[in-house]
Specification:
7-stranded antiparallel β-sheet; alpha+beta; OB fold (Dihydrolipoamide Acetyltransferase, E2P); Elongation Factor Tu (Ef-tu), domain 3; rod-shaped; 6-stranded antiparallel barrel; conserved putative lor/sdh protein from methanococcus maripaludis s2 fold
């Protein structure tokens, strides 16, 4: 009985083993596929074709991936292109903050010229762009208001004079008993009222621009002046002209804008991250492509206390001298704000830096005949070198000559 049971168990075990070998293709001896832990290089499938293991170093193709930013050149091509490399070096730089800015007029010296009287423009003496002096006549205005003010003053003064004569006569009559005390007191009270009326009329003329010496000469309607000269309040350039003959104006009508161009404002946006390094009084250097080689110096004189929520910036203002009126309103300039504390940087030759779109790049040798394009952040130039604040490490082999050729090769890649 025990012998029969042993035979049955042996048959069952053998059948299970056979099923396992037939049903598990991973154990098929003809497939040649093994577990990755066991295989080393190349395995053979059932058809006898070779498949390479992607994790095996020896199985990599020597042809570079065309999608890679790496540029591969042969020795002959490198020699013909004159490509040379140098090691990036350590350095320190007192970095400056560079901001785009725009030129605006000095608002304290940019004045809208209005008339002190209402009326109608009869003559215009200044043209757009004309340089004018302080108190130079810009326009002439016919003003009934001015004539009415002078007539009122003449009448008030005449009435005051007549009252003074009546009061003097009453005092003489009172002295001989021909006038009452009550009448004399009435005239004395009226004198104070007459004095106030004359002074009010005189003050109005002064406010309308009639000088005191001319006011004293007003004796009759024949002396009344009906025109008013609009004068420049400062010396400068006429940057706007709205006045034309026949224009009806009031006190709020801006006839001209006169701007003193001896100084201008440069306005730039200062980001939050730079607030700690910039303050009122920080030195500023201004350059512009319009005048290569000219470096204008000034200082930050105002930083807006309010941050713009859309851009997270605050307006920065610097006042600069404008000799020769070279800086014009609306010009774009580069604002370099004072040297801050020195910090470590990487130095490379100027010729190593190329511009691709809005980005500065250098080309780094990654091996024999292989070059990689790398984005960098550039700082100030120091002689023949330029500071790199990010994107490179000291010792990186940077292409110092032939970088333009590599840039062209890189742009040809898909």
């Amino acid at each position: 009985m025990r012998a029969a049971l042993a035979v049955i168990v042996a048959v069952a075990i053998g059948g299970a083993a056979g099923c396992s070998r037939d049903g598990d293709p991973g154990r098929d001896q003809g497939s040649g596929i093994r577990d990755q832990k066991d295989t080393g290089h190349v395995s053979t499938n059932a058809g006898g074709e070779g498949t390479s293991n992607p994790e095996t170093p020896h199985s990599r193709s020597p042809i570079p991936d065309p999608r890679s930013p790496e540029i591969t050149l042969g020795p002959d091509m490198i020699a013909r292109a004159g490509i040379k490399t140098v090691a990036a070096t350590k350095g320190t730089a007192a970095t400056s903050l560079h901001l785009p800015g725009v030129v605006q007029p000095n608002a304290y010296k940019n004045i809208d010229v209005t008339s002190l009287v209402s009326g109608r423009v009869t003559q215009v003496h200044a043209e757009l762009g004309q340089r004018v002096m302080l108190n130079e006549v810009l326009a002439t205005v016919y003003s009934p208001e001015l004539a009415d003010a002078q007539t009122t003053f003449i009448a008030a003064r005449a009435e005051h004079l007549a009252h003074d004569q009546a009061q003097a006569r009453t005092q003489r009559l009172y002295a001989i008993g021909a006038a009452s005390r009550q009448e004399l007191e009435r005239l004395e009270a009226e004198k104070s009222e007459m004095d106030a009326k004359v002074e009010t009329a005189r003050a109005r003329l002064v406010l309308l621009g009639i000088p005191e010496e001319k006011t004293q000469r007003l004796a009759s309607p024949a002396d009344v002046v009906t025109t008013f000269d609009v004068k420049s309040p400062i010396a400068g350039i006429v940057t706007k002209r709205n006045a034309n003959p026949g224009l009806n104006i009031d006190l709020a009508t801006a006839l001209f804008t006169v701007t003193d161009l001896s100084t201008v404002w440069v306005i730039a946006d200062l980001y939050e991250r730079d607030f700690a390094g910039v303050g009122v009084g920080s030195p500023v250097s201004i350059t512009t492509p319009a005048y290569p080689g000219i470096d204008l110096r000034g200082r930050v004189d105002y930083i807006d206390p309010q941050v713009q929520p859309e851009t997270r910036t605050a307006k920065l203002r610097a006042e600069l001298p404008n000799s020769g009126s070279r800086l014009r309103f609306g010009m774009f300039v580069d604002v370099s704000i004072g040297a801050r504390s020195p910090r470590p940087v990487v130095m490379v030759p100027k010729g190593a830096v190329q511009t691709v779109g809005a980005q500065s790049v250098v080309y780094v040798s990654t091996g024999p005949g292989r070059f990689e394009q790398r984005a960098v952040t550039i700082g100030d130039a120091m002689g023949n070198d330029v500071a790199i604040s990010s994107g490179l490490e000291p010792g990186d082999p940077v292409v110092s000559e032939g970088a333009f050729f590599l840039r062209a090769e890189r742009e040809r890649l898909p």
